[in-house]
Amino acid sequence: MVTIPRSKNSILGLHAFIPLIKLLGYDDLPQLFNILRPAIEIVSTTTQTDIQSCVSTLYTISPSETIHYISEIFQQTTNQKKRLNYLRLFRGFPTDMQKELDFTIKKNAAK
Questions:
Q1: CA torsion sign, 23 to 99 to 75 to 10?
Q2: Could you tell me if 43 and 89 are in contact, meaning their C-beta atoms sit under 8 angstroms apart?
Q3: Closest CA to 16 of 64, 53, 70
Q4: Spatial CB neighbours of 17, under 8 Å, sequence gap ≥ 6
Q5: Phi, psi of 11, rounded to the nearest 5 degrees
Q6: CA–CA separation, 108 vs 111, rounded Å?
Q7: Could you tell me the sign of the dihedral formed by the alpha carbons of 83, 86, 88, 90, in that order?
Q8: What does the alpha-carbon distance between residue 24 and residue 28 come to, in Å, rounded to a whole number?
Q9: pTM for the full model?
Q10: Is there a contact between 52 and 93 (Cβ–Cβ < 8 Å)?
Q11: Mind listing the pLDDT tens digit of every residue in the chain (111 residues)?
Q12: CB-based contacts of 111: which residues, under 8 Å, 6+ apart?
């Protein structure tokens, strides 16, 4: 598992990740999601905006895959503090994405 240190390096790495997302595109989405997941799992106020930018960029490439990926992370988390952090993170996503996430999370919770 990739570890992301909580420092300026994390922020710089996330800034560098956005052009990589655009360059690699749809065919490499699973790898891109796997690289970004550790940063999402330890989201903090210092990395939140950059993670939102990365996820929003992924969403422009494939909305349905990104919604599935983010919903999966949320659903697999049992820690309530982390879930609250994720919900704060979600508020910075594009409006359409927020609506889809809200619908998907509620639908999965009803199962």
A1: positive
A2: yes
A3: 53
A4: 35, 36, 54
A5: -65, -45
A6: 5
A7: negative
A8: 6
A9: 0.80
A10: yes
A11: 445 445 544 555 777 888 888 888 778 889 889 989 988 888 888 888 889 999 999 999 999 999 999 999 988 888 888 888 888 889 899 999 999 888 877 776 655
A12: none
Residue 48 vs residues 26, 58, 73, 103, 110: alpha-carbon distances, Å: 23, 15, 16, 22, 28
**Residues 40 and 51: beta-carbon distance below 8 Å:** yes
- Let me know how long the chain is: 111
Question: Residue 66 is which amino acid?
Answer: T
Give me the amino acid identity at 18. I
- Report whether 88 contacts 51 (CB < 8 A): no
- Which tokens is 48 given? 């939140």
**Token representation of residue 104:** 């998907």
Residue with tokens 């704060």: 88
Tokens of 11: 């922020």
* Amino acid residing at 100: E
